[in-house]
Write a structure and sequence with these properties.
Structural class: alpha/beta
Shape: globular
Number of strands: 10
Helix content: 40-55%
Length: 307
């Protein structure tokens, strides 16, 4: 039976995916606590943190597992009323281990995204949300931005702390605007908006990143008969976003897109070497070096659980 499974199962990075039952067996036999994560970024982030001197030993001993390395069947998703997607699969593992009475061995971390604004709560004993909208939010602070700008040779354009602050504030503001669009998109799937990351609607002036929201929405290809209602819903959503910090609502992909755009406009080096993956890696490295990260509720809870 097992050999048949391995033949049929898709491969994750060259290795067979693990069954949820196998993860449970590891916990029962080895008492190895396991952290399930949505994606590669989350996995890299926690792995890098575990290498830092300020990281508690209990966190270093956890096994971090990206959900792509675990087989979560359609039947399992359906049994818990869940749909496709990495976040849903992480939640499914959390509900599965809770049903089996082994929640103590697992923490399944998912991005909060806009769930809190939408009144959605997927958390449980084993499923925990990020403190902010996503893992990238932990990386979004002026120090990481300043050092990333330095890495990409932007010193001639960004010369002072005030310059960094201006860039940080404007990128945060645009992230909130894009979050407003994501919110109305999530709540009105009938519009079939095609969210994108085209630079055509972006500009930068005096170290301020701007977005032409009307142009951005047009690129989302809304139906003409829906546009007036979309504009009204977006206006309401943007007012809602005003009450929240950017880190509480931003989308990680949007953030890295905007930072990469700004760097390409400001760098004294070749623009072709500025790739989103490089920007992400630079911000990751600088973010995990901050000891105060361990005082965020998510990490305090992980330490308490792992100890």
């Amino acid at each position: 039976m097992r050999s048949l499974y391995w033949k049929k199962q898709k491969m994750a990075k060259g290795l067979p995916k693990r069954l949820i039952e196998e993860l449970i067996t590891r916990w029962k036999l080895e008492q190895l606590r396991q952290v399930l994560l949505e994606g590669d970024l989350d996995h890299r982030f926690l792995r890098l943190i575990s290498r830092e001197s300020h990281c508690p030993n209990s966190l270093k001993e956890l096994d971090h597992i990206p959900i792509d390395a675990v087989h979560v069947s359609d039947e399992t998703l359906s049994a818990f009323g869940l749909t496709q997607g990495n976040k849903q699969r992480v939640v499914a593992v959390g509900r599965y281990v809770q049903r089996e009475g082994v929640s103590e061995g697992f923490r399944c971390i998912v991005d909060a995204d806009l769930d809190r604004l939408r009144g959605i709560n997927l958390s449980s004993e084993s499923v925990v949300y990020t403190d902010y909208a996503c893992m990238e939010s932990y990386m979004w602070h002026q120090t990481a931005l300043r050092q990333t700008l330095h890495y990409f040779r932007c010193e001639e354009s960004v010369k002072s702390d005030a310059d960094v602050q201006s860039l940080y504030d404007s990128i945060s503001a645009v992230c909130k605007m894009l979050a407003g669009i994501r919110l109305i998109h999530a709540e009105n799937p009938q519009w079939n908006l095609e969210l994108h990351r085209s630079n055509a609607s972006l500009s930068i002036s005096q170290l301020t990143v701007n977005i032409d929201l009307a142009a951005y929405l047009t690129q989302c290809k809304p139906r003409k008969q829906d546009r007036a209602e979309i504009d009204k819903k977006l206006s309401d959503a943007l007012r809602m976003m005003d009450a929240h910090r950017a880190v509480s609502v931003l989308n990680g992909h949007d953030l890295i897109w905007l930072v990469a755009f700004a760097i390409k406009e400001l760098t004294a080096g070749p623009k072709r070497v500025v790739e989103e993956e490089q920007v992400l890696q630079s911000m990751l490295v600088h973010a995990v070096a901050k000891p105060e990260l361990m005082h965020q509720p998510l990490f305090e809870n992980l330490v308490s659980w792992a100890t």
